[in-house]
């Protein structure tokens, strides 16, 4: 099993519900287990158009390969009506693999770790919420990059009746 982190975002429709439902879709897959989920964050678009985005990050363990996980994420995006009319277009749901344990690659279809992981507050804040000491070999501790994104508008959204930021959020039932 490999540890991975997935970022979620969107700015069309009921994004909080879309992200919640997409996480449930992932939780139902036998090839992975969700270990932690961040709270929701609202952020202004970065190098994109449209209204504010809602974002979150989850930590998983998976038996899938990086490309297997990518295809699962893309299928979920399609289920939620994701369209790609142009680069950085507004979207119903976007899933990005931010990190996949033991994998560093720079291929057209999939770059790992995500190439802009340290440039976006909407990635760093929810990721560090669930993994405060996250470290990447070539970049070091990710929390050291927070001052570089401090100018980006972002707000942690209030959560009701959820386990945001807690480990073992989605544990498969044992029957």
Could you describe the 3D structure shown?
This protein is α+β, with helices and mostly antiparallel strands and 175 residues long. The protein has one domain: Alpha-Beta Plaits (2-Layer Sandwich), CATH 3.30.70.560. The chain is 23% helix and 26% strand. It contains four helices and ten strands. The protein has helices at 15-27, 66-79, 121-130, 146-149; strands spanning 2-10, 32-37, 41-43, 53-62, 94-100, 105-106, 111-112, 135-136, 140-141, 154-156. Strands 1, 2, 3, 4, 5 and 10 form a six-stranded antiparallel β-sheet that branches. The two termini are 22 Å apart. The model is unreliable at 168-175 (pLDDT under 50).
Provide the fold topology.
Elements: E1 2-10, H1 15-27, E2 32-37, E3 41-43, E4 53-62, H2 66-79, E5 94-100, E6 105-106, E7 111-112, H3 121-130, E8 135-136, E9 140-141, H4 146-149, E10 154-156
Antiparallel strand pairs: 1-4, 1-5, 2-4, 3-4, 3-10, 6-7, 8-9
CATH-level-4 superfamily name: 7,8-Dihydro-6-hydroxymethylpterin-pyrophosphokinase HPPK
Please bin the fraction of helical residues: 10-25%
Outline the low-pLDDT stretches.
Answer: 168-175
Provide the CATH architecture: 2-Layer Sandwich
Indicate the CATH topology.
Alpha-Beta Plaits
Number of domains: 1
Mean pLDDT: 89
The count of DSSP E runs of length 2 or more, i.e. the number of strands, is: 10
If you compute it from the alpha carbons, what radius of gyration comes out, rounded to the nearest whole angstrom? 15 Å
- Report how far the terminal alpha carbons are from each other: 22 Å
Q: Give the helix tally.
A: 4
Which secondary-structure class do the elements indicate? alpha+beta
> What is the CATH top level name?
Alpha Beta
State the order of secondary-structure elements, H for helix, E for strand. EHEEEHEEEHEEHE
Rough outline? globular
